[in-house]
Amino acid sequence: MKLEGSFHRATGSLFFWGGVVLLMLMTVVISIDAIGRYVFNSPLEGAQDIVGVSLFTLFLIILPHSFFGDYQIRMDLFYARMPGWVRTVADLVGAAGALVLATVLAWQAWENIPMFYVNHAGTLNVKIPYWPFNVVMLGTGVLLLVSVLLCVATGARAGDKGSH
Amino acid sequence: MEPVTIGLIAFAILLGLTALGTPLALSLILVGFGGNLFFYDVAQTSVRFYESLFENATSFILAAVPLFIFMGQLVHHSNIGRDLYECVYRWVGRVPGGLAITAVLSCAGFGAVTGLSAAAVATMGSITMPEMKRYGYAPRLAAGSLAIASTLAILIPPSLLMIIYGLWTETSIGHLFIAGIVPGIMMTVAFCGYIYIRVVINPELGRRGEAFTLVEKFRSLLAIFVIFGIVIGGIYAGVLTVSEGAGVGCAAVILLLVGMRRLNWKTIALAVRETGQLTVMVMTIFIGATFFAKFLVVTDISYELVNFIATLSVNRYVVLLTFVVMYLFLGMVLDTIGMLLLTLPIVFPVITELGFDAIWFGIILTILVEIALVTPPVGFNCFVMHQIAPEIPLGQIFIGVTPFVFIALGILGILTLFPGIVTMLF
Questions:
Q1: Between 20 and 30 A from B29 (CA), which of A15, B134, B197, B418?
Q2: Closest CA to A16 of B248, B277, B60
Q3: Which of B37, B47, B50, B285 is most worth mutating to test chain A (most A CB atoms within 10 A of its CB)?
C-alpha cells in the first residue's frame, strides 16, 4: 500500500505541475500568436506546432494518473448495481484495455525514438523534433503499465469520478 | 467470416462491455484492437492506433478542449458566477418568477463563457437555490428550472459537445457555434416564458425580488461586460478561430481575475486539476473512438447500413425520428460524450446520406443531449441539483424538470420543421 500511495502521489504531482505549465504555455502562445496576427500582422512562427506538442504532452502526462484516479467514463448506473464479481470482471477487462494502451504506447515510442532521431522528424512549420515527445510517451507507457498492475494487484479502484 | 459480421459482433461486444461498466475509452481501445487484428497483424494494428493517437493529440483544433475547460473552471472557481447572477437579478429579479428567470438567464450567460453544463448547475445552483428558498419558491419549480437551465451551457456556444461533434464529423466548429445561438436564445426565452406564465397564474409559486435603481443596474454590468466583450465577442465576431478564441479567452479571464484580485493559488490548482481530469477523459474516448471507427471503416458496416436503409424506402423523417427516440433512450442510460462518440460512426453517414445538414443535425443532437442530462434514471444535472439541495427529493426534481423537457422537445420539433432557423446566421 505504501508503494501504491507513493506512486499515486508521484503521478499526481506530474499531472498537476505538468498541467499548470502546459495549460499556461498553450494560453500564452495562442494569445501572443492571435494578438500578433490580428493586431500587428505578425503571427508567432510555429505557434500551432508548439500548441500541438504541448497538447500531446499534456495528454501523456495525465494518462498514468487517470487510470489510478479512475477518471474514465463508465456506466456507473449499472456498474454500481452489479454483484461484486461482475464489477471485478468489468474492472479486469478495463485493465486489459489499459494494458493494451500502455504496451502500444511504449512499443511505438521505442520504435519511433531512434527513427525520428536519425531522420530529424519534426513538426510541420518549425521542425520541433518529435523524438523527445516519444521519450515522454515511452515514460507514459511504462508508468501506465505500473499503474494498471498496481491496481490489479491491490484490487484498488480509487475514487469514483463520474461522467460529464 | 464477412467483414460486416465481424463489425457487428465487435459493436455488440462493445455495447456489452459498456453496459457491464467497463470504462468506455478502454472498451473502445480493447475492442478496436481486437477487431483490427482480424484484418492486420499486431505491428500494423499498433501503428494504426499510434496514428489515431498522434493525429488527435497534436491537433491544434483539439487544443480548444482543454483551454475552454480551463477557462470555464477558472470562471467557476473565482466567483464570477455570482457577479453574473447579481447582474441579471438586478435587471429581472422584480418580474413574476424573477428569481427562477434570473437562474435561467444566468445559466445561459454562464454557458456562453464556459460550455460546461455540470459547472453551470454546480455554480448557479449553489448561488440561486438559497435565494429561491428565501423567497419561498416552490421546490419543484426552483430545482426544475435550475437543472434544465444549466443544460443551456452546452447549446449556447462555446460548447464542449459541439467541439467534439465538429471534430468527429469534420464539420466547421465555428458554424456549429453560430448555429447554436438562435436555438439557444429560443430555448432560454421559452424557459423564461414558461416560468413567467406559471408564476403569473399562481403567484404562490414564488415572491418577487427586490427593486433596484437604474444606476445600480448599470453598475452591475461592468465586470460582466468586460468578460463577455473580450471572450465571446472575439469568437462570435468570427475574428478568432475556435482554438484562438479558447486561448485568448483563457488569457482574458486570467487577466481579469488578476485585475479583480481573485486569482489565487487555490483557484488555479482547482481549475488545473479539473481541467486535466476532463481533458484526459474526453481525449481518451476521442482517440479510442477514432481507432474503433477506423476498424468500422474496414468492415464497411456504415456503408452497408446506409444501403440497407436506402432499400427500405422509408421517409427520411421516419429514420430521423427513429434516431431521436434512440438518443432519448440512450441518453437515459449512457454518458453524453460516450453516447455521442459511440453512435456517430453509424448514425452520421446515414444522416448525411439522407440529405440532412450536418450542422443542423449537430444542433439537434446537442438538444437531445440536453434532454438526456435531465431525464431519469441517469439525469446527471438532476443528481447534482439534488446534492446542492438535498432536502428536495430527487423524484420532485425530475417532476419539476418535466415541463421543460416537453418545451425542449417542442423546440426540437420546430427546428425540424424549419431547419433554416439553425442556419439563419451564416
A1: A15
A2: B277
A3: B50
| Residues in Cβ contact with A149 at an 8 Å cutoff, skipping those fewer than 6 apart | none
**pLDDT digit string (tens) for B175-227?**
898 899 899 999 999 999 999 999 999 998 988 888 888 888 887 777 677 66
Return d(Cα B105, Cα B96) in angstroms, integer.
14
Cα A15 to the center of its chain, rounded Å: 8
Q: Please, are residues B146 and B124 in contact by the beta-carbon 8 Å criterion?
A: yes
Q: How many residues does chain A have?
A: 164
Give the integer Cα–Cα distance in Å for B195 and B185. Answer: 15
DSSP string, B178-210: HHHHHHHHHHHHHHHHHHHHHHHH-GGG-----
Question: How confident is the model at residue A46, as a pLDDT?
Answer: 92
Tell me the shortest Cα–Cα distance from A67 to chain B, in angstroms.
10
Q: What is the CA radius of gyration of chain A?
A: 19
Closest by Cα among A114, A136, A116, A138 to A127: A116
As given in the structure block, the three cell numbers for residue B127 are 448561488
Grid cell digits, residue B344: 456517430
User: Nearest CB to A89: which of B20, B246, B279?
Assistant: B20
Report ipTM for this prediction: 0.90
**What dihedral do alpha carbons B237, B152, B381, B209 form, nearest 10°?**
110
Which residue in this structure is represented by grid cell 441518453?
B331
Q: What are phi and psi of A72, to 5 degrees?
A: -85, 150
Grid coordinates of A45: 512562427
pTM: 0.85
Query: Which has the minimum average pLDDT: B28-42, B71-85, B136-150?
Result: B71-85
Report the DSSP beta bridge partners of residue A129.
A122
